[in-house]
Amino acid sequence: MTGRGTGVAVAETVADLRKLVADLPGPVVLVPTMGALHEGHRTLVRHARTLGGSVVVSVFVNPTQFGPGEDFDRYPRTWDADLAALAEEGADVVFHPGVGDVYPDGALGVTVHPGPLGDVLEGAVRPGHFAGVLTVVATLFGLVRPDVAVFGEKDYQQLTLIRAMARELALGVQVVGAPTVREDDGMALSSRNRFLTPDQRATAAALSAALRAGAAAGREGPDAVLAAAHAVLAEEPSLVLDYLELTDPDLGPAPTVGPARLLVAARAGSTRLIDNTPLALEAAR
Known about the structure:
Strand order of the largest sheet: 1-4-3-2-5-6
Structural class: alpha/beta
Distance between the termini: 62 Å
Radius of gyration: 19 Å
Shape: globular
Order of helices and strands: EHEHEHEHHHEHEHHEEE
Number of strands: 9
Largest sheet: 6 strands, parallel
Number of helices: 9
């Protein structure tokens, strides 16, 4: 149950996981991932370590959150590199289950329904996506029994829904969000960035630039935020925009003043990217 040459404990079955977690000093902090780890994932593990106790990281590419025609088969799988990275970051246990461990034979197909928030933004573009996400996260919570779970703010709608699930279903897990990790030009780190050609990578930087422009316009009110962001995106017509939305911090209707969130999703070539930023709205002058 130790990763070869790494020194980190690896559980590839539920039985192994239970044995390893039973011996961990609490609190137990879970960092769920789908692998293909980058600096953003490493930062989540470091953040988890600051919370005290023990860190469990799951590496599982979840098939139920990919819709028809999406990139499940194309999604990168880099297990050896992932394990080495997690050993370097000091993870205590890595849970690397097979599909049959998470969705065993004989399962009746019970899922977690995300409610109305699962049908907007990402949910509108990817029907069924959040039912898959919440179901696998709830399953991981049940298998690991963590006290705390850490997720990145880059997937902000996902984070919001997982927080709601943990709260409303009384799962007993504190859900913590960690800030988005960005490259030097501001682009959010993502496992999908590796699919971009150099030209697409340069074009995709407009997403974070649009968010910065929108946030800077917050002092002029909501309309100015969206106008400033759209103006930046219009300079890159090869980006295919799925949405650009201004909301409150809980993804409800945007306020006229106060804290808000600006979210964007677009395609650069065949690669779909998402990003978001917090901002403060002031009354338009």
